[in-house]
Amino acid sequence: MEAQIGCQPSYAWRSMFSAKKVIEMGSRWSIGNGQQVLIWKDGWLPNMADFKVCSPVNVLEPEACVSQLIDTNTKN
Asked: Fewest C-beta atoms under 10 Å: which of 7, 9, 18, 42?
C-alpha cells in the first residue's frame, strides 16, 4: 500500500491506484506471529479511528512489534 503511481503507469496500475483508498478501508492485517506489525505505527486494531493504538509509548520501545505482546506458550 506504500507504492506510488510512477511514470507512465499502465491502465491496470492506474485503476488499482485510484481505488487505493477503497482497498485500504476494506483490508485488514493478518497478524500471524506479529513480528512484522508495529504496535504504535501500523493500523492493526479494529477501532473506528485509524486502526492504531492510542495509548502512549511508555513500556515498550516505539518500534516494538505485536509479537512482543503475544504469549508464545498460550498464543494469547
From this structure: 7
Prediction pTM value: 0.57
**Which residues have CB under 8 Å from 23's CB, separation 6+?**
1, 16
Other C-beta atoms lying within 10 Å of the C-beta of residue 66: 20
> 41: Cβ–Cβ under 8 A, 6 or more apart, which residues?
52, 62, 63
pLDDT, tens digit (0-9, with 9 covering 90-100), for 4-53: 788 888 999 888 888 888 887 777 777 888 899 998 888 787 765 667 77
* CA 28/CA 46 separation, integer angstroms: 9
Cα–Cα nearest to 67, from 44, 37, 41: 37
Residue 74 has pLDDT above 80, yes or no: yes
